[in-house]
Amino acid sequence: MKPLAGIRVLDLTRVLAGPFCTALMADLGAEIIKVEPPQGDDYRHIGPFVDGHSALFALTNRGKSSVVLDLKTAEAQALARQIAATCDVVVENFRPGVAAKLGLGADALRHENPALIYCSISGFGQDGPFSDLPAYDIVVQAMSGLMEANGEEGGAPLKVGEALGDLMAGLYAAWGIAAALVGRAQTGQGASLDVAMFDALFSLLPTSHAIHFYAKSAVERVGNRHPLSTPFGAYATLDGHAIIAVLGDRQFAALCGVIGVPEAASDPRYATDATRTQNEPALKALIEAWSRQHTTAQAVEALRGAHIPTAPILTLAQAANSPHAAARGLVSDLPHHGLGTAPIIGQPVRFNGEKPVASTGAPALGGGSRDVMAALGLTETQISGLIAAGIVRAT
Predict the structure, then answer these.
(1) Alpha helix locations (H) across the chain?
(2) Architecture of the domain delimited by 8-203+325-393
(3) 369-379 residue pLDDT tens
């Protein structure tokens, strides 16, 4: 099932947030025309590399056609507007105001194509006091409240290892575009979407929101445990750590039985989730008196036997090579112009039991330029002239 089949997208994005958004749409069948500058998307030049090809670019640009336009020229800007007139969706992640200066802003393109869905992705949004600030993921993690809540208890703030600001902005953008397409089907009108990395990350902190807005308390770093529920975290074993996630009195009583202290379930210090959290150090010591006598595998097996949510902490290699990941089809190998095949991690949702992914890997720089120009009605002579002038590049 390809629910976005027939949807045409002009992708004016680079690096991560925008390309991640349009890659998700490519998985679901949308036609993605990716416009790149003559030097290509910045991610083409960021490692790790395999035979000269960027892994990051390959992972986030599957299923797209690459058109190279030098948007510093009026001729290229006019060509981009022609492409936009044939599209259902435009996605851009220029700095706020830059697209409009290029004649590619929402107002200009939607004036010519009122049904167009125009999605702008930026660090801090199209307006507001921070809108002009340069924003990489770590900047947004720092300013959203995420870093302040993340880290070891008593330690310094820590960024999350992945670029969650970019990824979540891309995910929200794809979600917003899909919703706008449904709205357009009902009204015939397009929409202008403003997606900010800052807004996206800020919206994803419900535990911190509960502590700040409802409990009226400061958000504090607590490491690998939950700030509101206990026991809910990583506990030391003979050879590493086991995750134990208990929510509710029934599960806590079961845990007490597994670790050999059933009487702890009736201890007033551990009577409720709140009191267990207040007495977390003592409870942790009680649990680790048991868990440190067992390997992680032994501890997990015992806890699972009592239906207590638990897990070992896996490496990415272990997760990727697990039989469950294989059964769920989490990794796909797609045809790639330079590598033969390339592994990608497609969108994860199954539609009627099937997981749609793009049919091709990331494109060669300018690999689709001639076909897209021809589809606009340009002759081979005109296309060759644009290439000779450096306005268009094709491979």
Answers:
(1) 17-27, 55-60, 74-85, 98-101, 106-112, 137-144, 146-149, 164-187, 197-202, 206-209, 249-258, 273-278, 280-291, 296-305, 316-320, 323-328, 369-375, 380-388
(2) 3-Layer(aba) Sandwich (3.40)
(3) 999 999 999 99
- Of the pLDDT bands very low, low, confident and very high (cuts 50, 70, 90), residue 391 is very high
Q: Do domains 8-203+325-393 and 232-312 have the same CATH topology?
A: no
Give the residue-averaged pLDDT of 97-116.
96
Is the dihedral angle over the CA atoms 102, 106, 108, 113 positive or is it negative? Answer: positive
Q: The tokens of 4 are what?
A: 């976005």
Q: Which of 209, 212, 226, 337 is catalytic?
A: 226
In this structure, which topology does domain 232-312 adopt according to CATH? formyl-coa transferase, domain 3 (3.30.1540)
Beta bridge partners of 311: 243
Q: Are 121 and 17 in contact (CB under 8 A)?
A: yes
Q: How far apart are CA 362 and CA 62, in angstroms?
A: 4
Helical residues (DSSP H) of 188-307, grouped into ranges? 197-202, 206-209, 249-258, 273-278, 280-291, 296-305
Catalytic residue check, 226: yes
What confidence score (pLDDT) does residue 95 get? 95
CA 279 to chain centre: 36
DSSP 229: S
d(CA 64, CA 49) in angstroms, rounded, equals 20
Q: Which contacts of 148-157 are long-range, i.e. CB under 8 A and separated by 24 or more positions?
A: 148/219, 148/221, 149/205, 149/207, 149/208, 149/219, 149/220, 149/221, 150/221, 151/221, 151/223, 152/221, 152/223, 153/220, 153/221, 153/222, 153/223, 154/221, 155/221, 155/223, 157/221
Length of the chain: 395
